[in-house]
Amino acid sequence: MEPARNNFHFEDLLNRHHLKKTAPRLRVLSMMSARNAATSQPDLESVMNDIDRVTLYRILNAFEEKGIIHKVFDLNGTANYALCSSSCDEGHHHDEHLHFNCTQCKNVYCLDDLHLPAITLPPGFEPQGFTLYATGLCPKCSKKAVKK
């Protein structure tokens, strides 16, 4: 019963952002919401091999433009995507939280409860967004390191 509830939630999300409810879009949302870390396009391609690369790229691009997902880069510079908060919308991402890059498993985590402090820039600078990264070991990798 839970998947139908999530599917309804995703259909509503697509409606609110004026996007067609297609099976590939619903699958991408479902896959991303099931993960506890941000995911890259190649990772999505590996588990969604029935959705071609161009279609997946267009879905991710549309979701980012509409404020459904945000992009965060891992330690190798690869773009990863995570679901946005409900306060994000088209052209206005509010994902100013800490992004944690695990140096062991290479996962990127959004730590939504840790928001960036207020930053005042010098006159003439107009910020369009801020990103703060932390690196280290995630809880899973920390436990593995202690056992060694």
Q: What does this protein structure show overall?
A:
- The structure is a single chain.
- The chain has helices at 2-16, 23-34, 41-47, 53-66, 139-147; strands spanning 39-40, 69-73, 79-83, 97-102, 108-115, 132-136.
- It has 148 residues and is α+β, with helices and mostly antiparallel strands.
- It has one domain (2-147): Arc Repressor Mutant, subunit A (Orthogonal Bundle), CATH 1.10.10.10.
- The strands form two sheets. Strands 1-3-2 form a three-stranded antiparallel sheet. A three-stranded mixed sheet has the order 5-4-6, with no helix packed on it.
- A hairpin with a 5-residue loop joins strand 4 and strand 5.
- The longest helix is centred in the first third of the chain and has 15 residues, at 2-16.
- The termini are far apart.
- 20% of the residues are buried.
- Its cofactor is Mn(2+); Fe(2+); Zn(2+).
- One of its GO terms (biological process) is regulation of secondary metabolite biosynthetic process.
- InterPro entries: FUR, Fur_C, WH-like_DNA-bd_sf, WH_DNA-bd_sf.
- Belongs to the Fur family.
